[in-house]
UniProtKB/TrEMBL annotation:
Belongs to the Vsr family. One of its GO terms (molecular function) is hydrolase activity. Residues 14-24 have a biased composition (Basic and acidic residues). InterPro entries: DNA_mismatch_endonuc_vsr, Restrct_endonuc-II-like. Keywords: DNA damage, DNA repair, Endonuclease, Hydrolase, Nuclease. It comes from Saccharothrix texasensis. This is T/G mismatch-specific endonuclease. The keyword Nucleotidyltransferase does not apply. CDD domains: Vsr. GO terms for biological process: mismatch repair. SUPFAM superfamilies: Restriction endonuclease-like (SSF52980). Residues 1-24 are annotated as: Disordered.
Length: 147
């Protein structure tokens, strides 16, 4: 018996979809925290830009000269292996949606790579300072090679 007194969950797929669609996709808490850390580490960047015209998706943080594009991925939407959940209600719909997102992410990474860019993916559950250090090491490593 659940703590809801045995009342079944009456939430519909439309309800779930509406709630999910209201979630912020820009300037999320982790994204803002990551940018703050990157700035603190002395890095300068642009936000919400398409690194390559062929990629229709904006990167969350872009380092132009180093050709590094950072994407902050939500655990639910991008199927995080640690925290991703598969809703039971209308499971096939959500599984397809999340798998489609993952395939698009992989395609985005490949298109960027083909254009000489490197995509760095940060999960929303990551510690912002740890993620910022990883991004910084990547950017500095690429700057050295591209200089």
């Amino acid at each position: 018996m659940s703590h809801h007194g045995g009342v079944p969950n009456l939430e519909t797929t439309d309800d779930v979809r509406a709630r999910m669609s209201k979630q912020r996709s820009r300037d999320t808490g982790i994204e803002v925290a990551l940018r703050r850390e990157l700035h603190r580490l002395g890095l300068r960047y642009r936000v919400h830009q398409r690194p390559v015209r062929a990629v229709r998706r904006e990167a969350d943080v872009v380092f132009g000269p180093a050709k590094v594009a950072v994407f902050v991925d939500g655990c639910f939407w991008h199927g995080c292996p640690e925290h991703g959940t598969w809703p039971k209600r209308n499971g096939e719909f959500w599984r397809t949606k999340i798998e489609t997102n993952r395939a698009r992410d992989a395609n985005t990474d490949q298109v960027l790579a083909d254009a000489g860019w490197l995509a760095v993916r940060v999960w929303e559950h990551e510690d912002p300072s740890v993620a910022a250090s990883r991004v910084r090491a990547t950017v500095l490593g690429r700057r050295g090679r591209l200089a």
